[in-house]
Design brief:
With 183 residues, the chain is mostly helical. Helices cover 73% and strands 0% of the residues. This is RNA polymerase sigma-70 factor (ECF subfamily).
């Protein structure tokens, strides 16, 4: 039998199977359509003489479960209650902070910059960084410590509160968080 004709003959069975999976005729039609489109575009990979019906049902079933997994990760927020509590900091401050950081990092001596990048940015252990640099572990620890202190000095960082959003942004975040908890 012609594979294209056989594909079309299985549509009623596919639809019944899709309805049994999702419980909605409208959604079932969408799943059937998607399965048929995938089957049609991959008809060249179907081996004549094998079970076309099983092949189509497998495509439909896989599509259904892929959709189910994707929906499981989504959060329904019909009245925008969750979205209204999200805050996005202005990007220009972060961009400027990153530029300042890059300039300060470039001012560090090469051995300190290398050690700091290996430990802080690349995630190597002190032992691995020492092996890469060809020096003792204590030397790497010392270089990282000096680099961090110099960066703090160059960036005028005096405490942990110097990190994060600027004053006006922090005020908005604190105010919206307090208002959100009152709701």
């Amino acid at each position: 039998m012609n594979p294209k004709r056989e594909l079309l003959e299985h549509i009623p069975n596919l639809r019944a199977f899709a309805i049994s999976l999702c419980g909605s005729p409208e959604r079932a039609d969408d799943f059937v359509q998607e399965a048929l489109m995938k089957a049609w575009s991959n008809l060249h990979s179907f081996k004549p003489g094998t079970n076309m019906r099983a092949w189509l049902f497998t495509i439909l079933r896989n599509g259904y479960y892929s959709e189910l997994r994707k929906r499981r990760r989504e959060v329904e927020d019909a009245d925008d209650a969750l979205a209204s509590r999200l805050a996005s900091l202005p990007e220009q401050h972060g961009h400027m902070d990153l530029n300042d950081f890059r300039k300060a990092l470039a001012q560090l001596p090469e051995d300190q910059r290398e050690a700091l990048i290996l430990i802080g940015a690349s995630g190597f252990s002190y032992e691995e960084a020492a092996e890469i640099c060809g020096c003792a572990v204590g030397t790497v620890k010392s270089r990282v410590n000096r680099a961090r202190n110099r960066l703090a000095e160059l960036l005028a960082v005096t405490s942990a509160t110097d990190y994060g959003p600027d004053g006006p942004s922090q005020h908005v975040i604190v105010s919206s968080t307090a208002a959100g908890s009152a709701i």
